[in-house]
């Protein structure tokens, strides 16, 4: 029987999820390929998740209105039906709209078409979506995104792409380099409540990206940066999911935590340890549900687990992340 082990902060002791009601809820059954979920929470509290059901040809969307306890039947995402895609990201904007970014993949007709990023907006908690719009692209470069956009005070979006790091203006559809113009790669970049920017490349900036300082002891989320994550909670804490262990998808997943605006990352909380290989890259994505709770969506494609391969959602009390 699978066990979901959870380690306390600083790994002082080991307890099991059943002791703390930390048990993942199965929300979908994937079939094959790049499952890579994305997640966001709407103003009304609805959780929206997308994931790849079948490699590059069946992107699904599902929603929960009760904090992740139950989920709607996953349905195809309307703008990828009969089109090839690679999963992207979900973001909730300050005005309540949702942004879904995904990647246009090569199609059977135009195998040499460069990969590029599209986005669509929803004003009704992910029920309907606007016509897709493209980010500016270099016709000779394959561009990909996997991480939520960071909405800046100006209303522009900081977008982390595999080939460039942009500030995109959704009003004019124009993009400019961020900060000092460096390419951070396909990694998350977040802004804390203090205005500090923290890059998944292990860098920290307090002057809007004009200069960067290397963070000592920063977790390795840049290697295979498309599967790792970094998020900021409302209280200013930063979480980075690490996937540890050998093999294709490791054996356990934990948060590395910063309680001091991204300067140090000593605290640790392990939230998934089935006692075997996870079999799949997991690609966790964390969202804050309320002032006391976060939720993380991930996948585990071990065929011998109860119910077979699955996409799961796990609720975690924020109190368990305290220093």
- Report the C-alpha radius of gyration, rounded: 19 Å
Q: What is the third-level CATH name, the topology? A: Neuraminidase
Category from helices, strands and their pairing:
mainly beta
Q: Distance between the terminal alpha carbons, to the nearest Å?
A: 32 Å
Describe this structure in words.
There is one protein chain. With 323 residues, the chain is an all-beta fold. It has one domain (5-321): Neuraminidase, CATH 2.120.10. 0% of the residues lie in helices and 39% in strands. It contains no helices and 26 strands. It has a 4-stranded antiparallel beta sheet with strand order 3-26-25-24, with no helix packed on it. Mean pLDDT is 90; it is low at 1-20.
Short description:
The chain is mostly beta strands and about 325 residues long.
Outline the secondary-structure elements:
Elements: E1 5-7, E2 14-16, E3 25-28, E4 38-41, E5 47-54, E6 58-64, E7 75-76, E8 85-92, E9 98-104, E10 116-122, E11 133-134, E12 150-151, E13 157-160, E14 165-169, E15 174-177, E16 189-191, E17 197-199, E18 203-205, E19 213-214, E20 229-232, E21 238-244, E22 252-258, E23 267-272, E24 285-288, E25 293-300, E26 310-317
Q: Key features?
A:
323 residues, mainly beta, Neuraminidase, four-stranded antiparallel beta sheet, globular, disordered N terminus
């Amino acid at each position: 029987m699978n066990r979901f082990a959870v380690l306390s902060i600083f790994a002082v002791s080991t307890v099991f999820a059943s002791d703390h009601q930390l048990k993942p809820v199965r929300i979908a059954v994937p079939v094959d390929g790049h499952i890579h979920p994305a997640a966001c929470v709407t103003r009304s509290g609805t959780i929206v998740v997308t994931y790849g059901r079948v490699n590059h040809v069946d992107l699904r969307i599902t929603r929960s209105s009760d904090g992740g306890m139950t989920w709607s039947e996953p349905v195809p995402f309307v703008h990828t039906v009969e089109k090839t895609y690679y999963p992207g990201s979900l973001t909730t904007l300050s005005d309540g709209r949702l942004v879904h970014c995904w990647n246009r993949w090569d199609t059977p007709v135009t195998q040499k078409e460069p990969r590029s990023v599209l986005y669509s907006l929803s004003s009704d908690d992910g029920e309907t979506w606007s016509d897709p719009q493209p980010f500016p692209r270099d016709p000779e470069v394959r561009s990909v995104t996997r991480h939520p956009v960071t909405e800046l005070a100006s209303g522009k979006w900081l977008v982390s792409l595999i080939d460039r790091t942009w500030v995109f203006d959704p009003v004019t559809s124009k993009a400019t380099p961020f900060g000092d113009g460096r390419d951070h790669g396909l990694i998350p970049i977040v802004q804390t409540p203090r205005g500090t920017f923290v890059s998944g490349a292990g860098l920290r900036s307090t002057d809007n990206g004009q200069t960067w300082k290397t963070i000592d002891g920063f977790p390795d989320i840049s290697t295979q940066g498309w599967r790792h994550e970094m998020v900021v909670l409302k209280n200013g804490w930063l979480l980075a999911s690490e996937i540890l262990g050998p093999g294709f998808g490791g054996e356990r997943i934990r948060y590395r935590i910063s309680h001091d605006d991204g300067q140090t990352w000593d605290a640790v909380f392990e939230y998934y340890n089935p006692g075997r290989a996870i079999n799949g890259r997991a690609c966790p994505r964390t969202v804050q549900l309320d002032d006391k709770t976060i939720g993380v969506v991930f996948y585990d494609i071990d065929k011998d687990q109860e119910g077979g391969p699955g996409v799961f959602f796990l609720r975690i009390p924020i109190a368990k992340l305290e220093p």
